[in-house]
């Protein structure tokens, strides 16, 4: 009897394994699938060898083509690379979804909340609310540029004090509170002192949330039960320890604004506007406390991490390219002069500075895999069938480092963004650091003026040099985004 049961079990397991490794009809090419794990082992080995997830995806694209199909656990992951394929993907509404799963729900209390990693009717309502509110609060207009300029001026004064004492300090960490203030004035109507210890710790916590798990959700999203077996190595423990203080800070701020009698019916920041909307009798069901925390977390994280990383790389490339730094400072001196600081109105008169920023964004590729998408239905892309609920990764790195287009993509050369040595900035169709389509980055209108003003003002006022004899590495720290490895600088006041 037991022999028969064993034979039946073995037979069923064998049939399941045979069925489990079968790829859907016309599925994109990619590594072979193993039962249960899919291509997981091959992916892990490649990441360990290449050190970066985006390089692993790029290697698969070189091997299998512009559309690659991978299975990790039960997740089907589609890697889209190259101009034609990425352009086609962004143009199709079927790819406007965001992935679901344990990791993507973990950061929003086990639900699909916020605006960055959700889709559907509630996302439509919340995205419209966020865009409308940020515009009403001045984002993209002169009044919000003034907010950025104020934070830049505060930072310059802070740097002058440090320069006078000859202090050596970390570059990226020194920008964090000023950048946080830019976002936080819009979200909560508040700003903090640049030496606030709690906010420095909080900003560091935000940075670390981007480097625990990769953009596709990691093994935790495929095998959630791993949080019980190996909570640390699966990423569950580290991520939870990082999220809890962020939730606590946001909940504390929201409660303070809610209890402030002067904030009733006021719409002077995103949080108060959300609370007013929530109090309306006919408000949409998506306006909840959990949604407000998740929305703030989305904007809080994205607004600090990406801008901080771009600026960190910008100053790092200046250390490695002093001749470029000299050209930047020469242009600033000739246009802005010694008696004032750069403003947003100077941007059109500073083409070389603009070209340097664009080249930093290209070569650093802070978001190399874009934000993940989800196929909302079965759909055909470039001749391949993409099954519903597949995770779709637009490999922006493949565009911004395309040797056939840029000729020497590994070389830092700002002139590629200038028209034949003239003073006209060139826009390249292979350059889309903020993505494209309906899921284009919400914070683009904030990021562009912030990066420009922080970079040009610091370059205008100071000369920077490495604090160590050897230049810091250009290699990035891997994660959902790429960030520069920590490095220290010395600054000398010019003006």
TrEMBL record:
Tell me which family the UniProt entry assigns to this protein.
Answer: Belongs to the cytochrome P450 family.
> Where mainly located?
endoplasmic reticulum
The organism named in the record is Anopheles atroparvus (European mosquito)
Positions of heme binding:
441
InterPro entries in alphabetical order? Cyt_P450 (IPR001128), Cyt_P450_CS (IPR017972), Cyt_P450_E_grp-I (IPR002401), Cyt_P450_sf (IPR036396), Cytochrome_P450_fam2 (IPR050182)
Q: What lineage does UniProt assign to this protein's organism?
A: Eukaryota, Metazoa, Ecdysozoa, Arthropoda, Hexapoda
- Report a single Gene Ontology molecular function: iron ion binding
Question: What's the protein called, per UniProt?
Answer: Cytochrome P450
**Topology class, membrane:** Peripheral membrane protein
Superkingdom per UniProt = Eukaryota
Q: What does this protein do?
A: May be involved in the metabolism of insect hormones and in the breakdown of synthetic insecticides.
Q: Which PROSITE patterns match?
A: CYTOCHROME_P450 (PS00086)
Gene Ontology terms: biological process: organic acid metabolic process; xenobiotic metabolic process
Q: Name one Pfam family in it.
A: p450
Instruction: Report the SUPFAM superfamilies cross-referenced here.
Output: Cytochrome P450
Q: Where in the cell is it found?
A: Endoplasmic reticulum membrane; Microsome membrane
**Known cofactor(s):** heme
Keywords of the record, alphabetical order, are: Endoplasmic reticulum, Heme, Iron, Membrane, Metal-binding, Microsome, Monooxygenase, Oxidoreductase
> Can you quote a single GO CC term?
endoplasmic reticulum membrane
């Amino acid at each position: 009897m037991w022999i028969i049961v064993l034979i039946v079990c073995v037979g069923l397991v064998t049939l399941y394994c045979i069925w489990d490794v079968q790829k859907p009809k016309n599925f994109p090419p990619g590594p072979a699938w193993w039962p249960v794990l899919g291509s997981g082992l091959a992916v892990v080995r490649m990441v360990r060898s290449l050190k970066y997830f985006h390089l692993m995806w790029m290697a698969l694209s070189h091997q299998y083509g512009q559309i690659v199909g991978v299975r990790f656990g039960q997740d089907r992951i589609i890697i889209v690379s190259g101009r034609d394929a990425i352009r086609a993907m962004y143009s199709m509404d079927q790819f406007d979804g965001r992935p679901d799963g344990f990791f993507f729900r973990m950061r929003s209390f086990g639900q699909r909340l916020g605006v960055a990693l959700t889709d559907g009717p509630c996302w439509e309502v919340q995205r419209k609310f966020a865009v409308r509110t940020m515009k009403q609060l001045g984002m993209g207009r002169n009044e919000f540029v003034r907010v950025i300029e104020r934070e830049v001026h505060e930072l310059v004064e802070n740097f002058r004090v440090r320069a006078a004492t000859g202090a050596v300090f970390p570059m990226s960490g020194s920008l964090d509170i000023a950048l946080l203030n830019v976002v936080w004035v819009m979200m909560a109507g508040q700003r903090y002192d640049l030496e606030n210890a709690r906010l420095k710790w909080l900003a560091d916590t935000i940075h670390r949330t981007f480097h625990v798990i990769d953009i596709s959700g990691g093994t935790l999203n495929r095998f959630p039960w791993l949080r019980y077996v190996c909570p640390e190595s699966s990423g569950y423990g580290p991520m939870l320890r990082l999220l809890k203080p962020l939730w606590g800070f946001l909940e504390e701020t929201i409660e303070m604004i809610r209890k402030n009698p002067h904030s009733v019916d006021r719409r002077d920041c995103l949080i108060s506007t959300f609370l007013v909307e929530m109090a309306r009798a006919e408000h949409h069901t998506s306006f909840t406390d959990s949604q407000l925390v998740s929305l703030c977390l989305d904007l809080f994280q994205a607004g600090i991490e990406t801008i901080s990383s771009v600026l960190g790389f910008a100053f790092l490339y200046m250390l490695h390219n002093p001749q470029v730094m000299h050209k930047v400072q020469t242009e600033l001196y000739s246009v802005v002069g010694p008696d004032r600081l750069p403003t947003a109105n100077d941007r059109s008169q500073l083409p070389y500075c603009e070209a340097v920023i664009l080249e930093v964004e290209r070569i650093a590729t802070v978001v190399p895999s874009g934000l993940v998408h989800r196929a909302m239905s079965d759909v055909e892309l470039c001749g391949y069938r993409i099954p519903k609920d597949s995770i779709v990764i637009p490999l922006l790195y493949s565009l911004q480092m395309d040797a056939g287009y840029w000729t020497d993509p590994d070389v830092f050369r700002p002139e590629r963004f200038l028209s034949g040595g003239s003073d006209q900035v060139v826009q390249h169709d292979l350059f889309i650091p903020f993505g494209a389509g309906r899921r284009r980055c919400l914070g683009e209108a904030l990021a562009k003026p912030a990066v420009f003003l922080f970079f040009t003002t610091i370059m205008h006022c100071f000369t920077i040099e490495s604090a160590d004899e050897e230049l810091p590495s250009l290699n990035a720290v891997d994660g959902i985004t790429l960030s520069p490895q920590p490095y220290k600088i010395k600054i000398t006041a010019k003006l």
